[in-house]
Each structure stands twice: as structure tokens, then as C-alpha cells.
Amino acid sequence: MGKIRIVHYINQFFAGIGGEEMAHIKPEVREEKIGPGLALEAGFKGEAEIVATVICGDSYFGENMEEAKVEVLDLIKKYNPDLVIAGPAFNAGRYGVAAGGVAEAVQQELGIPAITGMYIENPGADMYKKSVYIVETKNSAAGMKDAVDKIVPLALKLVKGEEIGSPAEEHYHARGIRKNYFTDKRGSARAVDMLIKKLNNEPFETEFPMPDFDKVDPNPAVKDITKAKIAIVTSGGIVPHGNPDHIESSSAQRYGKYDIEGVMDLVEGEWETAHGGHDPIYANQDADRVIPVDVLRDLEKEGKIGSLHRYFYSTVGNGTAVSNSKKFAEEFSKELVADGVNAVILTST
Amino acid sequence: MVKEIERAGIPVVHMCTVVPISLTVGANRIVPTIAIPHPLGNPALDPKEEKALRRKLVERALEALTTEVSEQTVFDVK
Q1: Which domain holds residue A87?
Q2: CATH number reported for the structural domain that contains residue A124 in this entry
């Protein structure tokens, strides 16, 4: 077999086209290796080459998933690749969703092996880990070398149809697949070994991890919306001008609570976004595009809702750790309950 | 965040553009919106039309909040 032919999928940022202001670009192809493709190809040490790179803006993909997938697949299949690598996307949420979506579609519709890489908290990992191999990466592009070192050996096995080891051995996100194999110790002995380790506070690996079923059942509907006090919460990073609480533009460590008593409309120059994960221009021009204060005030006046809660809560959902956003919301939800809020509108960008 | 608000006992509607992410994070009432950088607006419209669009989306969110659901439900805007 000659060199393995790879088509590489990346976003506008890694292609060097631009940041968020270019996230709307449609899929395009270049017959060369670009950005992370250089490190990837080098990792294959001559066994494979990147024959083309398909680039798509993350917002375009996120907002037009079905069309974008078709367009990307059309570009990819022209090159008859043996393998498609998407990303790695690290902790970039939209990029992860795109990379996972592309990898899944390539496998299902083109029948070509595909692989991607993501940080464990990337929403794309949860969405696609069952259908494609997603290598576990660090949470930022600083982990590129580590990602390449994990992607290359697994990719080679996929292309060559070799047996793939366990998630721990091959460093991919567990896919929930159980495999039978022979072992020299029977189950009862392994269980006792594990128990002894547990009693001695030593590390051990379970053979049957419990799936994470953290679902919260929906609350009953609001009975009378015309009497309800409604609060706004956002991950879109809307803050008073100047971002007084210094909410981070990514990986937020804090949230803000802002008083909107008497505010009928969020005007430019008084409100803005702290979000660093998308083009801020539209939110800075008119923050009502992210949190609909103007419309809720109208509905309040018309008696269509009881009232708009005096405070809104805001953070930046951009690579922000799940543990942080959980902690923020646990805290402010207690305040919302204490303040007699009946319903929440949560907006995300 | 949506899950913690729900867990605290307050019905919550998630308005966002990338619905699959919303489903993954466990939102139960979801209203799809316009675009990632401007979920509740469209800069291509004149201000009056834009506000009318925003109102339609918010009214749909209020419908979502007043509708009983037993599982994750997407309330598309017609």
C-alpha cells in the first residue's frame, strides 16, 4: 500500500483565516496541509500524507448542521481518502460539535474511517463518542503534541483494520462498547482483588463503570404566566459596560448579578458582552439580541407576564468548566428561589 | 446551568441556536434561536422587524414554560 491518503477537517481559526469574525465562512478546500495538519502529518513519519484540508467556520457549521455536513462530505469525497481526521477540537464547543459531526458522517455515509480528538468536557465528545473514536485531549491547543501522539497510532490501526484496544490503552473517550475476552483470573478473584485495593485506599479500575445518568426531570409548567416573576440567566456574557466584575472571556471563573430595575432597553455603550468565543459586535450593538430585556418589559407592561425579576445573572459559556457553571448555578438558583422567581429564561450564544 | 436551575425547582426554558448541545447539557424545554452571536436578534433586519422577531421567540419561550413536558422537548418557532 502506498501512502495513506488523509483529508483533514479544521475550523477557520486553525486554518489561520481568522477568529470569530470569520466563524461564518462556508466550507472550502485547500490541497495542502495547514496548521495542525503539519504536526499531524509529521506524526505519521512518512506513512501518510494530508492530500487536502477542508475548512469550515464554526458558526456556519453550528447554525446549518445538515447543509454543512453535506457540503463538507462533497468536498472530502473528491479526494478518495483512506482516512479523515477532524480537529482536534480541544475544548472548543462548536468546533467539537462540527468535528464530531463530520467524523460520524464520513464513517456512516462515505464508509471511510474517521477520527477526532477532544477534551472530556467538550459537548461534542458526549454527542459523538458512541459513534466515532474521539481521542482524549487536553483542554487547549497547547496540548497539540499530546493529541497528535494519541491520534496517530489509533488512526493507523483504524485504517489498517487492526484490533483496537480499550479506551484506557488507546486514549479515546469510552464508547460504551463491551467486549468479551479471556483472562487468567476468574471474576470472583478479580472482584476480591478490587475490594482489597479499595479497602487499602489504593487505585483500582472498575470493570463496569456506571454510566452518568445525571438527568433532571422537567418541573411542572407555570400555571399562570401573567402572574409569574421571570428571571433572565445567560451564558452569553452580557455585562454592564466595562465588565465591572471582570468575567473572563473564556474559561470563566465567576458570574455577575446585575440590576435592571427601570431598564427598559439595553442600549449600546451601557451593556456589552464579555464573551470571547464568538464575534461580539452584534451583542455590543444591542445586548437585547442576547437577553431580551426590551421585549420582556413590553410583555410586563401589557400584563402578559407578571414581572421581570430585578436582577439577571450572567457568565461566559466558552470553554468554561462544567464544574464551574454547575457551582455558579447552584449558588444563584438559591437566590432565585428565595426571591420568589417562578420561571427562568436562559439564553446561550 | 440549566440543569441546576431545574434541580432547584424552577421551570426553565433554554433559548439557544445549537439545539444538540442544549439536549446534551440536559435542558428540558428548548427554543431554537437565530444565530450563535445574536440568538435573539437579526442585524440584517430593520430594528422594528428585529424586535418583532425577538418577541415571537420570547412568546414561544413563554409557551414552553406553560406547557407540561415529561421529557426533553424542542419548541420550534413557526
Answers
A1: 4-170
A2: 3.40.50.2300
Is residue A205, in this structure, part of any structural domain at all? no
Q: Does some domain include residue A183?
A: no
Nearest to B11 among A222, A283, A325 (CB): A222
The number of domains in chain A is 2
Whether chain A has a CB inside 8 Å of the CB on B30: the answer is: no
Closest partner residue to B62 (CB to CB) among A123, A278, A305 is A305
Chain A residue numbers touching B56 (CB-CB < 8 A): none
Any domain includes A218: no
Mean pLDDT, each 10-residue run in order, chain A (349 residues) = 92 94 94 96 96 96 94 97 97 95 97 96 92 95 95 96 91 86 89 94 83 83 96 96 94 95 95 92 96 97 97 92 90 97 96
Q: Do B10 and A337 touch (CB under 8 A)?
A: yes
Structural domain includes residue A191: no
Q: Domain boundaries in chain B?
A: 2-74
Q: Are A55 and A68 in contact (CB under 8 A)?
A: no
CB contact under 8 A, A62 and B14: no
**Ramachandran quadrant class, A150 (left: phi over 0; alpha: psi -120 to 50; beta: rest):** alpha
The ipTM assigned to this model is 0.97
CB neighbour list of residue A165: distance below 8 Å, 6 or more residues apart: none
